[in-house]
Amino acid sequence: MALSVIEKLYLLKNKFGKIIIPDAVWTEITVEGRHKKGTDDILRADWIKVESLQNTMLAKSLEKDLDYGESEAIALGMEISADIILLDDKLARTLAANLGLNILGTLGILIWARKMGLIENLRTELHNLLIHANFRMSQNLISKALREVGEDA
Fold first, then answer.
1. How many Å apart are CA 60 and CA 53, to the nearest integer?
2. Which one of 22, 30, 69, 104 has the fewest beta carbons within 10 angstroms of its own beta carbon?
3. Cα gap 40→24, rounded to integer Å
């Protein structure tokens, strides 16, 4: 989770209270990403709940286009009728939207946080994402986000 890398994981708790993630995402974070910055914060976050996927057929079908974490996240979102699913990958977002899921990503969380006064400067946090979290986003998207919060100068 890119927000944990830039020390903004708390924003998810502020917005949602708790989040539910599938086993595959937990494994990506805690096993494959064990030594990455921010992992310890996720391990300590008692408001992040791990839930096992019951029907794996949708996840398996999505894996031909997505990684297993994104596939399970979408499938679990469908299974539990999630209000919002957190996704950043463009193809994953498209597939989730086509399945009728409401999507929010890291950039959307940061825009919300800036509007709520939870972060002082969106430009700084976007820079941190790009540099420290190897986050990818186009300059056009960055400009649009900055305009939305009045930091377009």
1. 11
2. 30
3. 17
What would the pLDDT profile of 1-60 be if each residue is shown by its tens digit? 899 989 999 999 999 999 999 999 999 888 876 778 878 889 899 999 999 999 899 999
Domains and CATH numbers, the chain: 2-105 (3.40.50.1010), 107-148 (no CATH)
pTM as predicted: 0.90
Alpha carbons 133 and 3: distance in angstroms, whole number: 8
Helix (H) or strand (E) holding 20: strand 19-22
Contact 22/75 with Cβ under 8 angstroms? yes
- 27-30 long-range contacts, Cβ below 8 Å, gap at least 24? 27/69, 28/67, 28/68, 28/69, 29/1
Q: Which residue has 């996840």 as its token pair?
A: 59
Q: How confident is residue 153, by pLDDT bands cut at 50, 70 and 90? A: low
Q: For residue range 72-109, what is the model confidence (pLDDT) as tens digits?
A: 999 999 999 999 999 999 999 999 999 999 999 999 99
- Spell out the residues 6+ positions from residue 24 whose beta carbon is closer than 8 angstroms to its own: 53, 59, 68, 69, 71, 72, 73
